[in-house]
Amino acid sequence: MKTTGNTILITGGGSGIGRGLAEAFHALGNQVIIAGRRREFLEETVSANPGMAAEILDVTNAGSIREFAAAITAKYPALNVLINNAGIMRREKFTAQDPALLDAEAIVTTNLLGPIRLTAALLPHLLSKADAALINVSSGLAFVPLAMTPTYSATKAAIHSYTQSLRYQLQGTSVDVIELPPPYVATDLMDGRTDPRAMPLDAFIAEVMEILKAQPDVQEICVERVKGLRFAEAAGKHDVIFKGLNDSMQA
User: Fold this and answer.
1) pLDDT tens-digit profile, the chain (251 residues)
2) CA-based, 20 to 30 A from 10: which of 50, 78, 114, 229?
3) Is 2 part of any domain?
4) Among 89, 71, 90, which Cα is nearest to 33's?
5) Is residue 23 a part of any domain in this protein?
């Protein structure tokens, strides 16, 4: 994926990793459109980054995703990059679970169905471009789950699998398919912003952009801090890392 000369749509772009990516790509001269449900976050980000654009999008609503895709491609016909970043993360306790499974279903709808639906809606447009890319933000927890967030971890594992299949089916086309699995990053997701164990957001974004610049053909953008989780199984350390991760997060 080239890092300049793009028109990029980033879901969940008003805060956290989404905002960090939006600002980094914007600084390189790309046209960046951020999308999300919280208008105040979008407006704050756009105000701080003149030239950036914002659009309201509810990724939990299948009908609105189709309408959004039609409108966004008409408004920004040069759109050639989609970054599926929007997501939610909630603690779940199996022994005290809501029988309606409201949290679990909300997580699945946002983190998994949202990217699948938006990708399907925009893929014909991306395929029409000579140079396009699709980045799915997964998580280090796709590879070693955090027991207190089981559905979140499961959706990210599903995104990893989905991205692999999408990449295989789109080989030979103009669309690069890339996975970005963050480690624990200091954002408002699960109160990580003030946790000293979390990787600083600015450091994470800087390393991601350096990888993209140095490796334009990269398929997985793995910063150093996520490699222990990403390659735990291959290293034969999954069980040890799983226990260490979950024991430490209970502390």
Assistant:
1) 999 999 999 999 999 999 999 999 999 999 999 999 999 999 999 999 999 999 999 999 999 999 999 999 999 999 999 999 999 999 999 999 889 899 999 999 999 999 999 999 999 999 999 999 999 999 999 999 999 999 999 999 999 999 999 999 999 999 999 999 999 999 988 776 778 899 999 999 999 999 999 999 999 999 999 999 999 999 999 999 999 999 998 86
2) 229
3) no
4) 71
5) yes
Does residue 47 sit within a domain?
yes
Contact at 8 Å (CB) between 156 and 138? yes
162 is catalytic: no
- Residue 42: give the domain boundaries: 7-250
| Interatomic CA distance for residues 87 and 112, integer angstroms | 9
From the list 152, 162, 168, 184, the catalytic residue is 152
CATH number of the domain at 188, please.
3.40.50.720
> Cα-flanking dihedrals φ and ψ of residue 55, to 5°?
-140, 140
SS3 57: coil
179 strand-pairing partners: 136, 220
In-domain check, residue 156: yes
Query: Domains in the chain: how many in total?
Result: 1
Are the CB atoms for 141 and 229 separated by under 8 Å? Answer: yes
Q: How many CB atoms lie within 10 A of CB 3?
A: 14
